# Entry
Amino acid sequence: DAGVIQSPRHEVTEMGQEVTLRCKPISGHDYLFWYRQTMMRGLELLIYFNNNVPIDDSGMPEDRFSAKMPNASFSTLKIQPSEPRDSAVYFCASSGSRGGNQPQHFGDGTRLSIL
Amino acid sequence: AQTVTQSQPEMSVQEAETVTLSCTYDTSESDYYLFWYKQPPSRQMILVIRQEAYKQQNATENRFSVNFQKAAKSFSLKISDSQLGDAAMYFCAYKTSYDKVIFGPGTSLSVIP
# Structure
């Protein structure tokens, strides 16, 4: 079975540019999560969706960040305009809801560097 | 609000020895789930073991086992016969029902040959 697929794996761009990160969850999973990981702050939940609907976006740092899930097999996290402090590894994860013990399955992450 | 604490930022263990990583959590819920994830240098997040709070029996997966103390809100991970491939960051995580997962700050484990 294919796992969670994220693209790109690495992204280097200049400050002020728009950045779009992509995620394809595991088929059949109805929860999708976006995380940011940095040395200073660890693993932070940015936003999560259930059945394509955003449930909790309280972790989104500011209005420069936005996330969408137009269908069950695709989600994007966009940063516009990007800033050097946005440099981090961004993870997408998905999980099913058939029983509360369903763990989150993570993608390989996108390492984002803003110059 | 639920919180997860891992009080050991770094740990080391001699190859073939046993090590225990600590995790405590704070919650008022009675029904929840606990997980340990491993993140090697490749940065993949890999599920190591899971525990349902309603189960008294501690979960075991090969060389990995947990000591779940519900009253103390403690969920430690024991790694037996440590191998070089066990070197990684380990995250304890808490989840209620279908809700979001809360991760601890992580413990960096080094394995000494």
Observations:
- The mean pLDDT of chain B is 93.
- The CA atoms of residues 64 and 79 of chain B lie 5 Å apart.
